[in-house]
Amino acid sequence: MAAVSKAQTTVTLKHIAAALAESHEIPKKQAEGLLNDMVGLLVKNLKKGNRIRISGLGILQVRKRAARMGRNPATGEPIHIKAKKKVAFRAAKRAIRQGGGIGLAAAMEVEDAAWRAAAFSADRREGIAAFNEKRAPRWPGE
User: Fold this and answer.
1) In which element (H, E) is residue 69 found?
2) CA distances to 63, 66, 78, 82, 88 from 72, in Å
3) Quick one: what percent of the chain has pLDDT higher than 70?
4) Overall pTM > 0.85
């Protein structure tokens, strides 16, 4: 059973601005203004279709979602879902490894343990064996 974690706190631009103001010894209003300008520039560039790479954090980009058929969960009736654009975020490896409030070594141990459990479990070995029995050979003599 997974451990129950304490409630997460939502950090807002005001919180970040206050921390920046304190660490750089500038007024809070100025720090808030800088962050608001940065957010405005990010939105402006995303609207243009530009990709935004923030080193150590990740990449923001606009992705196009194709129109598709869906289903109304209440009635089961098919519905048409329009094409749309969405902002996608892909976290940088460094941000992933440093996330969660645990050290890099501990994060890597958890990652290794999870990989070993998935890669070498009996179910996984059984599934791979069944797949290899069913698939056609990729080249002669296999």
Assistant:
1) strand 68-71
2) 24, 18, 6, 14, 25
3) 68
4) no
